[in-house]
Amino acid sequence: xxxxxxxxxxxxxxxxxxxxxxxxxxxxxxxxxxxxxxxxxxxxxxxxxxxxxxxxxxxxxxxxxxxxxxxxxxxxxxxxxxxxxxxxxxxxxxxxxxxxxxxxxxxxxxxxxxxxxxxxxxxxxxxxxxxxxxxxxxxxxxxxxxxxxxxxxxxxxxxxxxxxxxxxxxxxxxxxxxxxxxxxxxxxxxxxxxxxxxxxxxxxxxxxxxxxxxxxxxxxxxxxxxxxxxxxxxxxx
Length: 237
Prior knowledge:
Blueprint: H1 2-8, H2 15-29, H3 58-77, H4 84-102, H5 108-124, H6 143-155, H7 158-163, H8 168-188, H9 193-212, H10 214-234
Helix pairs in contact: 2-4, 3-4, 3-5, 4-5, 4-6, 6-8, 6-10, 8-9, 9-10
């Protein structure tokens, strides 16, 4: 799966290039009707709750699948906006799931199970090529550190990472370092966004310059700052 994702992705992929393509595929192949945006807020913890596929008839399965595909699309667009690599990954995997579902056109319950399982993976941000180091002993995911790990994969091709001796273990360590720098800056300058960004830049530049060189370090820091701005606006840093 990891190999296929990287090959299909042509090193890195742009989520925006897939958004409309995904919607058209959903409209064409899943249930044959337009995917509707959910009204109001949706509670991620309740997705698919109390739905038992073994008790579904075909029409119920199609209806539930339509709801799930709408939720998945919204999660990728909105919830994963703080993790560009996860957006890329799950956009690609959603296209693959749609293709797989086409082969099940006469088995709506199987289609439902396929997308219900995929929805859970999106909710958990579970990616085949991301290590489990970001899950603590209590099973809680540090989604921020995982997103910083993903930025290296998102911005730089595998050849550069290999050249710089940045294997997964090293990237995990750097991701936690970035997370600590951001957390410290937010805690220290919580009422001054400009100072938060300045502190992050000043502390990360020497760390990342040593690993990536100046231009690539600046590129990564800018993405960290974008994520930090989004987190502050959402109250989720």
